[in-house]
Amino acid sequence: MNAKLKSTAMAVALAGWFAAQPAAADTLTFGGFANGSVAATLYNTPSPVGGNPTAVSAGGFSMTNTTAGGTFQAWCVDIFSWLASSTNYTQVSGASFYPTSPTKVADLEKLATRYLPSVTGNATNSGAFQLAVWEIVNETSGVYSLSSGNFYATSAASATANSMLSGLNSATTNTAQVLSVWKETNYPTQDLAVFAPVPEPQTYAM
User: Fold this and answer.
1) Mean pLDDT throughout 138-148?
2) Mean pLDDT across the stretch 141-152?
């Protein structure tokens, strides 16, 4: 193999090696509910949610990234685990976290685009948003409703959550949101969804 081909092959091999390495983990710390919470009782069939029924508090979490800095709001997508107060996570795209469920990713992003702005300072809306997230993630019947299906819940925020779910395809002028997931790396804690605005297209001076 000549020197040029050898160096090219080595560069390709190194690129593949680096791409295969796991992303560096960040430590995330739970700081309470960002906008308050509401009580809810969850039911899931045929697999129980940690015992059927399960009483929970529903609302967006306030999380601090003690590695990179900054505080952000996150939403539980894994009701089968307890949330650790502080543990390591890696952030992945929604498509990477749900590789066989593009509809689930799209519907979570629609939910955030239309209703995430309404949760600030409103415990009922924050709880309803979390319930709607759980419904999209866990429902397999084909119809989103907290009143029926294999995943359902009772809560003072259920009606608001159902309204959000029925309005997923309604028109909106809100900024589109994109899903990513903080995935726990070495502890059986909850995986967390976060949403961020779609970046504005870059403009360049001629």
Assistant:
1) 93
2) 93
Rounded distance between C-alpha atoms, residue 179 and residue 67, angstroms: 21
- Give the residue ranges of DSSP H helices in the chain: 3-20, 94-97, 102-115, 123-138, 158-166
Q: CA 143 to CA 136: how far, in whole Å?
A: 9
pLDDT tens digits along 161-183: 999 999 999 999 999 999 999 99
Q: Which of 125, 113, 147, 112 is nearest to 58 (CA)?
A: 125
**8 Å CB contact between 36 and 123:** yes
What is the phi-psi region of residue 200: left when phi exceeds 0, alpha when psi lies from -120 to 50, beta otherwise? beta
The maximal CA–CA distance of the chain, rounded, in angstroms, is 72
Pairing label, strands 177-184, 61-65:
unpaired
